[in-house]
DNA sequence: CGTCTATTTGAATGTACTCAAAAGCGGTGG
DNA sequence: CCACCGCTTTTGAGTACATTCAAATAGACG
């Protein structure tokens, strides 16, 4: 049941943690389930939890002044999700987080988060590395969004996140890549015909 | 001399650290100076340090297949800079880092970084919070890049980073915002005439 | 089977780009 | 101190690419 979390910790921290310690760590989380199309977090409200997904899929999105949604990131089982701006800064959330499938998650509130960092030496390190990895991924995304073509970015996306393709609707992937859904459809069409000819 | 670093730590960690502990922490760094237009880090090579800037300015950029540069982030005194992908992952750097002004910096290599995290309980927390803050800032940047107009993004940039405007060339700011330098020039022109009329 | 949502396709529009050149600015050396 | 040179910013004109609007097709779900 918690094997996914334990594996996540082990791989991230890079060393073995005694099973009983992991269980004590695990006890700080509470189990939650969410239906499809449920909001875990709303822009403007406090986001009081960080979630570790045990199953299902969610995505977070930003809504601009004109009311248009932009997909920010996706998460499947084994991923973490939250509005970190709100969770860590105790401020109003910037993003919405919505389930794309029914979700089973382990929820950690801010108090338990701090408790985890104090009680377990591996926890602070674990969350530091998570944040670092996430930051690096975002930097790379910014670099490619601003300098590579939409086609290049789509191919890169399919290469890096093949498991997303099957479970994330295409119009959200288009939004994530910063293009209109029609444009992604046309890019895919071009790729398909080019593929067929060669 | 190290007051900037100490203040940075204090404010980030959110509590006082004894002065002698801060000095022991400080001893892990080595002082470096760099001329203007010096590369601290090259794409494809290992980036073996994280730098804390005591004075001067640097920017990091990405170079795509076509050889075009894209500005990724800027750093002034009081900021940290590195290619985190390379530094933490021990892989080839994705970005270049170049000085825009002569720089005085405190350099921390990977070994000392790990040592700092082991010896000082505040260090792991410090670097976790740094990474989190950086991550949140990038997420917001992605959100606005993909959904707000270039004008909106420029105004937001001037609001959030007024101290950058005086010291970062305009064509780099344009690159950072994901637009051509000519486009930024035109946006500024429009804003100026609109300002004058009202 | 029918409804709702997602994807594809078409045509017209427009925004931001590229290419090109001029003007502005700063630093260096005579 | 001024003249020159290189780099940055501005301005102009034409172009191209992604977008928008619109509608048809395809798929999912009750």
Could you characterize what this model shows?
The structure is a homodimer of 198-residue chains. By secondary structure, chain A is α+β, with helices and mostly antiparallel strands. The first copy, chain A, folds into two domains: 3-147, Jelly Rolls; 148-198. Chain A is built from nine helices and eight strands. Chain A has a four-stranded antiparallel sheet. The first copy, chain A, has a four-stranded antiparallel sheet with strand order 2-7-4-5. The N and C termini of chain A lie far apart (47 Å). The model of chain A has no long low-confidence stretch (mean pLDDT 94). At the A-B interface, strand 5, helix 3 and helix 5 of A face strand 5, helix 3 and helix 5 of B. The structure holds a DNA duplex (30 and 30 nucleotides).
Feature tags:
homodimer; 198 residues; alpha+beta; Jelly Rolls; 2 domains; 4-stranded antiparallel beta sheet; 9 helices; 8 strands; DNA-binding
CATH superfamily of the largest domain in chain A: Jelly Rolls
Question: What's the total count of β strands of chain A?
Answer: 8
> Major β-sheet of chain A, in short?
4 strands, antiparallel
Q: Which regions of chain A contain 5 or more consecutive residues with pLDDT less than 50? A: none
The main sheet of chain A orders its strands as 1-8-3-6
Please tally the helical runs of chain A, counting DSSP H or I stretches of 4 or more residues. Answer: 9
Strand content of chain A: 15-25%
Compressed to H and E, one letter per element, the order of chain A equals: HHEEEEEEHEEHHHHHH
Under the CATH scheme, which architecture of the largest domain in chain A would be assigned?
Sandwich
Q: State the domain count of chain A.
A: 2
Helix/sheet category of chain A? alpha+beta
CATH topology of the largest domain in chain A: Jelly Rolls
Multimeric state? homodimer
Residue share in helix of chain A = 40-55%
Q: What would you report as the Rg of chain A, rounded to the nearest angstrom?
A: 18 Å
Shape of chain A: globular
